[in-house]
Amino acid sequence: MCLVVMPRQTKKNQPIVRFDKVGMLNVGLILKTAREQKGLTLDELSDLTGVGKTRLNDVELGNGNKLMVDTLEAYRRVVLPQNPQTGNIYQCWELLEIAMILEDPPELEKEESGV
């Protein structure tokens, strides 16, 4: 089964979750750095994860507007990226938090500005 995390708006006046280009680039850099530290090529990582080389490259480059959780988790389990602040291995949810941002919905922004 393939899980895809897609940004979506829930109820009115609740924050909107979306993928952030800078966040996606940061996650890609974290994973690429860990892969290179392990001495793995994209071809080798593809063999180890079962994920296509092109998709792995897209993750590293921060391409697209979504992240497939199974791809992210497969990548993470092989390269074990380390958080430099804590020394712990990043968990999948932590990487997703880096890649996503919360925005106030337009209705809430109008209320706050008094419009």
Features:
115 residues, mainly alpha, 434 Repressor (Amino-terminal Domain), two-stranded antiparallel sheet, 6 helices, 4 strands, 53% helix, globular
Describe this structure in words.
- The protein has 115 residues and is mainly α.
- It is 53% helix and 10% strand.
- It is built from 6 helices and 4 strands, in the order ββαααβααβα.
- It has helices at residues 21-37, 42-49, 53-61, 69-79, 92-99, 106-113; strands at residues 4-5, 16-19, 67-68, 100-103.
- A two-stranded antiparallel sheet has the order 1-3. The protein has a two-stranded antiparallel ribbon with strand order 2-4.
Shape: globular
CATH class: Mainly Alpha
Question: What pattern of helices and strands is seen along the backbone?
Answer: EEHHHEHHEH
CATH topology: 434 Repressor (Amino-terminal Domain)
Strand share of the residues? 5-15%
Structural class: mainly alpha
Largest beta sheet, briefly?
Answer: 2 strands, antiparallel
- Biggest sheet, spatial arrangement of strands: 1-3
How would you sum up this structure in a few lines?
The protein is mainly α. The chain is 53% helix and 10% strand.
